[in-house]
Amino acid sequence: MQALSTRKIPPAAPVQSQEAADAKEALVLAGISLVNSGLTLEQAALRTGAPRETIRRRRSGILTRHEMLSHGPQRLTDDEETALTDFILQMEASGFPLRQSDVEDSAMALMASRWNRNDPLPSLGEKWFSRFIERQPKLGFRTKETLSRQRTKGLSKPNAEHFYEILGSLVRTHNLSAKNIFSMDEAGVQHGVCSKKFKYAGSSKSRKELVTAKKDGSQELTTVIEAIAASGSALPATFVFKGKMFDMTLTLDSAQGFVFTSSQTGWTNSITTQRWFEKVFLPYSRDIAGEGEHRLLIMVRAEQSKFSSTSLH
């Protein structure tokens, strides 16, 4: 007969309820908040009852086991992903649906805000964006074609009413007056002499009787960015000339009252638009609206791609 082993099997670890896990997580977050406010790890652990090492690890960006195993590895905490989801939905409601690169930039910014380790920030990974969308039931994938199709149907009475509902809500929420509401638009201006063939039809001509004209010369494009407050006060016009500039800061011509810069094409891009927002809109609109006052910027025909995630933040 074989002798039976008398070794005792250790009891299974008790399963922690969701309520207990949430309570423990709340204590850890409270401890992190206390450390960020200036307390030591020991003081934060003593006040909250959360383990000192847990507070240290979580504050250093090390995620919980649940967060690492849920739907693949995460780079953000659950609270950070919730905040990012709310930001994405808010930007979409405001007419600025974020691209994948914008979402990833925002995620990296959230990580950097709490990263205090000597090693560099880890990359999000190739599949992070798709897994992030899968983890968030409020979000879904959108394509450029879908957005373009929606924009072609954008000019309608329901959409106009929706726009003014959002505008009215912002005005009431932030107590905005006419001096706090700004509208911005840009227009391309061609100067020089046209050198390309073009066709036109006079009112007395049939569609088949088209006349071709030609003029020798050359044309260049200059983009003008303008912004005006609902009260009638205008910001300095910004001219974007075609050319190369090593210094991309905008230059103010105080005698003429306008700002000028350049781009390789003469069109605005994310760099020139961000410079305009930082160097023209923010300071000059503050002078009009008043120090510390909320300001609302309405962009007419402005493309979302011309505003970087930094500007949107």
From TrEMBL:
One GO term describing the cellular component: nucleus
MF GO annotations: DNA binding
PROSITE patterns tied to this protein: HTH_CENPB (PS51253)
Pfam families registered for this protein in UniProt: DDE_1, HTH_Tnp_Tc5
Taxonomic superkingdom: Eukaryota
Keyword DNA-binding part of the UniProt annotation: yes
Domain (HTH CENPB-type) ranges: 68-142
Record keywords: DNA-binding
Protein name (record): HTH CENPB-type domain-containing protein
Source organism of the structure: Tilletia walkeri
